[in-house]
């Protein structure tokens, strides 16, 4: 008898049908969305920096206040399945975005490989290059603008 091939939940369920544990587990823990962003006042373009929110434990790439993060950081956005169509502001390697755009998770995702080793090996976590926002005066944040090329950060001048 041929065993039925197991299909993981992210391939069989829509994001709207996932339970909260499944939804949270889609996050690969890269920390990119916890980097400060600057918005151009003229054309509203958004630029990421390598400056991490003060609540991000950079070495572990984990939010220190995750459960009640919006009470600590009012502008921290909570990702919800019903908002998935508006996820274009997320980095293009963000697993929520990749799943929405391709129907699958990236092959380095911890849910696919069983650990975060492969994503760390590929340098996809901000722990390799982020510095905390409090270490830089706000009038110099512009010098920290980056863009990602194949998931890796490069200094960028808009
Ligand atoms: S960018 Fe996406 S995958 Fe990375 S930490 Fe943020 S929500 Fe999770
Ligand atoms: S409060 Fe936590 S989840 Fe929100 S941006 Fe800061 S570190 Fe990230």
Question: Would you mind describing this structure in some detail?
Answer:
This protein is α+β, with helices and mostly antiparallel strands. It has one domain. Helix content is 20%, strand content 17%. Strand 6 (145-149) and strand 7 form a beta hairpin. The longest helix is centred in the middle third of the chain and has 8 residues, at 95-102. The chain starts with 8 loop residues before the first helix and ends with a strand. The site of one iron/sulfur cluster has 11 residues, from helix 3.
Short description:
By secondary structure, the chain is α+β, with helices and mostly antiparallel strands. The chain contains 6 helices and 7 strands, in the order H-H-E-E-E-E-H-H-H-H-E-E-E. It is 20% helix and 17% strand.
List keywords for this structure.
single chain; 158 residues; alpha+beta; five-stranded mixed β-sheet; two-stranded antiparallel ribbon
Order of helices and strands: HHEEEEHHHHEEE
Radius of gyration, whole Å: 17 Å
Low-confidence segments: none
Helix proportion of residues, in percent? 10-25%
Beta-strand percentage range: 15-25%
In total, how many beta strands?
7
N-to-C CA distance: 60 Å
Bound ligand species: iron/sulfur cluster
Q: Any idea how many domains?
A: 1
* Shape verdict: globular
Helical/strand content category:
alpha+beta
Number of helices: 6
Largest sheet: 5 strands, mixed
* Whole-number mean pLDDT: 94
């Amino acid at each position: 008898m041929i065993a039925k091939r197991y299909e993981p939940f992210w391939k069989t369920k829509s994001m709207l049908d996932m339970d909260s544990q499944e939804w949270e587990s889609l996050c690969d823990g890269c920390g990119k969305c916890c980097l400060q962003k600057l918005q151009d006042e003229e054309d509203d373009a958004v630029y990421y920096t390598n400056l991490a929110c003060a609540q991000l434990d950079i070495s572990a790439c984990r939010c220190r206040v995750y459960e009640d993060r919006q009470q600590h950081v009012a502008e921290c956005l909570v990702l919800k399945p019903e908002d998935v169509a508006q996820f274009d502001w997320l980095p293009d390697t963000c697993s929520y975005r990749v799943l929405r755009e391709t129907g699958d998770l990236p092959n380095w995702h911890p849910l696919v490989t069983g650990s975060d080793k492969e994503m760390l090996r590929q340098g996809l976590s901000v722990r390799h290059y982020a510095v905390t926002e409090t270490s830089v005066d706000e009038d110099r944040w512009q010098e920290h603008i980056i863009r990602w090329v194949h998931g890796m950060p490069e200094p960028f001048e808009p």
